[in-house]
């Protein structure tokens, strides 16, 4: 499988998948990947050709990946973004400047995504944990202060929860978003950005099980992994006393609303070759023409906000409509 780091390209209120053409969308996102990311992301345009750099470690991957942002809610009513850290684990440490880690996990012969392909996992408005498959979207309380000390078993198993953990013993919260692995073979997108794909049998980071007849084409399993460092917020005296959550995503909702967006942008057939040739982890792979860049190089690929507002530091309220105002 491929497993590699992507640093933050930009943090802003845009979402060209759900709200194309709109600036100051309903909630804040963190975006990684190719620097041709823009408000509209016209499917006719190829990010692989338009991007001059990528914030991901594979040079050939100009795709864009984005998620909501996690905030800490102080009992005085103010909010601050939870910092992020690189991810350790059995496969080794990845270095991120914000952002997330991306996995492409094949299960047998898979068909790589086509130019113009995009999809969405999760529902940003969902408030019911029971409507989320824990095997696909989950959170883990990481009670080690070091992300290199692996906690638990495979993603979305064991004591992992749909809800964002609210426990002072958590030093970090690992978020996992697993995308569908079955495609209808025809549509590169759909009106809800979900119905052209489907989850196969089974769940978790297994590469996906057998596909339904409606979606017979097996895709690589895309998985996002994010490490939110909540160490500085473990003092419960800072937490809200009115029963509201200490940790929320930028929609002011909990883990049930966690979601991830994906726009394909690998150069040529490099991803197909990577899957066919067993390219592994974040290593250069000559058989597929994959080359890597240093963390200093990919972290230097950034973009100015297209919806400018200062989202750093303590904020009076979540940026959801009105411009962000400092606390």
Automatic annotation (TrEMBL):
It comes from the Eukaryota. InterPro entries: DUF1996. It holds the Pfam family DUF1996. Residues 15-266 form the DUF1996 domain. Residues 193-212 are annotated as: Disordered. Residues 201-210 have a biased composition (Gly residues). This is DUF1996 domain-containing protein. It comes from Bimuria novae-zelandiae CBS 107.79.
């Amino acid at each position: 499988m491929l497993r590699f780091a992507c640093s933050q390209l930009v943090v802003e209120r845009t979402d060209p998948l759900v709200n194309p053409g709109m600036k100051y969308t309903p909630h804040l996102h963190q975006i990684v990947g190719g620097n041709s990311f823009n408000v509209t992301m016209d499917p006719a345009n190829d990010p692989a050709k338009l991007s001059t750099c990528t914030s991901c470690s594979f040079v050939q991957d100009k795709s864009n990946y984005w998620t909501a942002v996690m905030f800490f809610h102080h009992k005085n009513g103010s909010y601050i973004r939870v910092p992020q850290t690189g991810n350790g684990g059995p496969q080794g440490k990845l270095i991120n400047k914000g952002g997330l880690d991306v996995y492409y996990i094949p299960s047998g012969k898979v068909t790589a995504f086509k130019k113009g392909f995009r999809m969405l996992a999760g529902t940003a408005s969902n408030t019911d944990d029971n409507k989320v498959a824990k095997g696909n979207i989950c959170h883990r309380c990481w009670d080690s202060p070091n992300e290199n000390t692996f906690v638990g078993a495979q993603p979305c198993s064991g004591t992992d929860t749909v809800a964002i953990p609210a426990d002072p013993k958590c030093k970090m919260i690992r978020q996992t978003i697993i995308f569908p692995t079955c495609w209808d073979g025809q549509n590169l997108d759909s009106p809800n950005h979900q119905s052209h794909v489907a989850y196969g049998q089974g769940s978790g980071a297994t590469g996906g099980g057998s596909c339904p007849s409606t979606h017979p084409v097996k895709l690589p399993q895309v998985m996002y992994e994010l490490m939110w460092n909540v160490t500085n917020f473990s003092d419960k005296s800072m937490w809200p006393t009115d029963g509201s959550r200490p940790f929320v995503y930028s929609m002011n909702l909990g883990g049930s609303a966690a979601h991830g967006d994906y726009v394909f942008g690998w150069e040529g057939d490099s991803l197909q070759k990577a899957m066919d040739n067993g390219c592994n982890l974040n290593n250069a792979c000559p058989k597929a023409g994959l080359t890597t860049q240093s963390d200093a190089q990919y972290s230097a690929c950034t973009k100015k906000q297209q919806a400018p507002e200062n989202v750093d530091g303590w904020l009076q309220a979540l940026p959801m409509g009105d411009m962000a105002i400092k606390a």
